[in-house]
Amino acid sequence: MAATPTASSWTRNSCNLVQITKGPPAGYPRWSPDSQKIAFVMKEPDGLEEVYTADISDRAAHKLKTNVRESDYPYWSRDGKWIYFLGREGTGHQLFRCPAGGADATLLVESMELTNEIESSDGKLLYFPWYFGDANMMTLALDRAGALPQQVPRIAKIFDQSQWTVVPEGIYFTPQDNPRSICYYDFATKNAREIFKVDKDLAAGMSISPDGRYMLYSQFDENNASIMLFNNFH
Questions:
Q1: What CATH number is associated with residue 13?
Q2: Is residue 160 situated within a structural domain?
Q3: Neighbour tally for 153: CB within 10 Å
Q4: Could you tell me if 35 and 50 are in contact, meaning their C-beta atoms sit under 8 angstroms apart?
């Protein structure tokens, strides 16, 4: 029987687990910038997925009420006032933003192959990989109404939707044509350089510590397949 995922929190100085949700499958938890709330996705009885929020003090899940039929992959704005999410209003995913407390959502980007997004440190731009024909890194100006997505100039196509992250001065990423390389794109010079190579294939995820001293990434240590013989098969 398959396990049912739920959203939980864990305190670093304690091994006590606190369950946030019960019942329907839940996942993709995201901390708010002030660490007082989380946003996550929970499946509805009709099978659709919706974004919920919960305050850590009362651990009660509240549906993010918007005018969008389905919501997924939440991401907080840097100031905690907004929640970005992917919604379905037609064909494929579109990128929306709504107030963190819920209200009508604003359509930001329409695309069939939009994935995760990261806001710039000053909250003025939104970065995201756009798999609409190719893996281009795009940016959207949030302070201009009606702005259209623009390709980040002179940056290579990325290898995977999860193998990139934004810091105040640039973008760390894995290029499509060199999937064992980690590169850095400088916003000031609009040039990229290789930082280091890994000796195994990279897996999902990339993150830089807040002080800029460390990088987290995942890689495949083993990828095995075995041929088995079934005796007395009929």
A1: 2.120.10.30
A2: no
A3: 10
A4: no
Residue 12, CA distances (Å) to 17, 79, 219 in order: 10, 24, 25
Contacts of 24-31 spanning 24+ positions with Cβ under 8 A = 26/52, 28/72, 28/73, 28/74, 30/74, 30/75, 30/76, 31/76
**22-26, 156-160, 229-233: which has the minimum mean pLDDT?**
229-233
Residues with Cβ < 8 Å from 157, sequence gap 6 or more? 134, 135, 136, 137, 175, 176, 177
Q: Is residue 174 part of a domain?
A: no
What total number of domains does the chain contain? Answer: 1
Q: Which domain holds residue 28?
A: 1-110
Interval 116-167: pLDDT, tens: 788 998 999 999 888 655 678 999 999 887 888 899 999 999 988 888 999 9
CA-CA distance, 216 to 193, in Å (whole number)? 19
Tokens of 137: 């890194």
- How many whole angstroms separate alpha carbon 148 and alpha carbon 166? 20
